[in-house]
Amino acid sequence: MKKLILSILILTGGAMSAQENPNYWQQHVDYKMDIDMNVNNFQYTGSQELKYTNNSPDTLKKVFYHLFFNAFQPGSDMDMRLQDIADPDGRMVNNLGTKEEPKYQSRISILKPNEIGYLRVESLDQDGKKVEYKEEGTILKVSLAEPIAPGKSTTFKMKFKGQVPVQIRRSGRNNADGVALSMTQWYPKLAEYDFEGWHADPYIAREFFGVWGDFDVNISIDKKYILGGTGVLQNADEIGYGYEKKGTKVKRAKGDKLTWNFKAEKVHDFAWAADPEYIHDSMKTESGVTLHFLYKNDPKVKENWKKIQPETAKLLAFYNEHIGEYPWKQYSVIQGGDGGMEYANCTLITGGENYDGLLGTTAHEFAHSWFQQLLGTNESQHPWMDEGFTSYISTQAEQSLEGKNSENPYKGSYRTYNYLAQSGKEQALSTHGDRYEYNMAYSIASYVKGSVFLSQLGYIIGKENLQQTLHSYYDEWKFKHPSPNDFIRVAEKVSGAELNWYLNDWVNTTNTIDYAVKNISEENNATTATLERVGIMPMPLDVTVSYTDGTSENIYIPLSMMQWEKPAAEGMERTVEKDWSWAQRNYDLKLNKPKSEISKIEIDAAGFMADVDRSNNIFPAAAAE
């Protein structure tokens, strides 16, 4: 590990980091909130003090807040989108028709007044002065009393109230597992402002983008309820429920409620869940991080929730080694929400009756702590950088836990991507998360094509360079908001290759990769294999030639626009041929053997190139059958 880090430092020593770049900036927030929850009607009141620091070069005359719970009302943008999209998220609709002829009903459209969600701001001032504000769906637009100059801070004080919706998506009350409260996207959250301007996106379907900062949150709730979530509980010895130090006699305040005080540093969201039947287990890991597990006292799931606890510690160790050290003091795996969803210092996961499903979801959601909670990409604009990178590394982590060492654990991802590419429904990865015409296309693009982006990058620059790239990406961009170009620049610095072509074709277009062995000819006991670029997207090629005497030859054909050659894998002998220019559709590969002595020629035998038609990768064609 020490040698690897030293290599990274040498390779990137002359490059300017994000921290050193005078043009890079990001905003900062500090939240203080006091929340009073009524568990009988699922309504709550809150006060919020928000210190906002403008690190931008711009003078701000307005700000925006997200009011996410307003999405869960009939007629909202989220409701209308569910009624409009051809294949809506199945968790958010009822199918009144058949599987063959579905007729979808938005679950939001039928919510009653006491079932909807809402967030309503009752008062707001800036540095003691009242401000004008207007609620527009899930966005609050605020006209400032005084502009915020570059480098200056201001303090907003707000009173608000909310109602927790019937659980439909991510947030809500009384979910399918019977968890009382899944409190995510629950508070007025300041929108992000960056080099692209304000990101005041309405909450329609997808995920989130937030400002880094510190949170100090007091939650008053019925004392029978047990909580878990973002941050570290500050008054554990007054709360108990397994948070107190061993041997401590818990002294709870009198009355019907307890006030839980959580603090979190350097996060861009705050989430929590609560239920009176939670079992709370915790364990201290070798790295010093405390893992918390909160789950229902249900005999159908208890054993599996116990079983994943040591495995979660192994996941933490794996991600620490293969990405970078987890910097916070705790992480909580909590039963709640729907499916699985990542938040700062925690995840909410449903179910647990299926152990493999529970472990797989935990592996994926925990990995989001690096690819999203530490490397805070704009998930609305670049969901593939979050979901895809997370899918890539969690696949490796699960393989490690299972003791597997597959040469290509991503074969299923390549097949699924190929299905999308051939479906006629694919949209470019650069598509905003809310703008996908098909939910299926969004899911495959973000999770699968985003994962293939990394595994295929390993094919392009070599696995060791890819691993070094992930470490350098973490070191340079943790606690920041990297863009796609920021990542590819790290890969270029680590490897030495020019890679803008890869980012452009794979992310900004739906161009496909298709290379073929077009023709074989022989002259003077030598063979010429004519290769063809059938698809638009270029690639360097690994070609394997097998001979009738049982030997084989590895051949590497560089791509001219990379201005670089991939290093050979450790222990591999290979021949490097002349570069192939993208504009040249055909390429003649000379082999100093007669055709009769060649048993097979194959492009990308390992299958790490996302070639949409592998049937033409092999000569003779029968070898592909």
Q: Average the pLDDT over all residues and give the rounded result.
A: 95
Instruction: Please report which band the strand proportion falls in: under 5%, 5-15%, 15-25%, 25-35%, 35-45% or over 45%.
Output: 25-35%
Structural class: alpha+beta
* Spatial extent as radius of gyration: 27 Å
Note the main sheet.
Answer: 8 strands, mixed
The dominant shape is elongated
Walk me through this protein's architecture:
With 625 residues, the chain is an alpha+beta fold. Among the domains are: 2-18 and 397-508, no CATH class; 27-204, Immunoglobulin-like, CATH 2.60.40; 515-624. The chain has eleven helices and 33 strands. The strands form eight sheets. It has an eight-stranded mixed beta sheet, with no helix packed on it. Strand 28 (541-547) and strand 29 (552-557) form a beta hairpin.
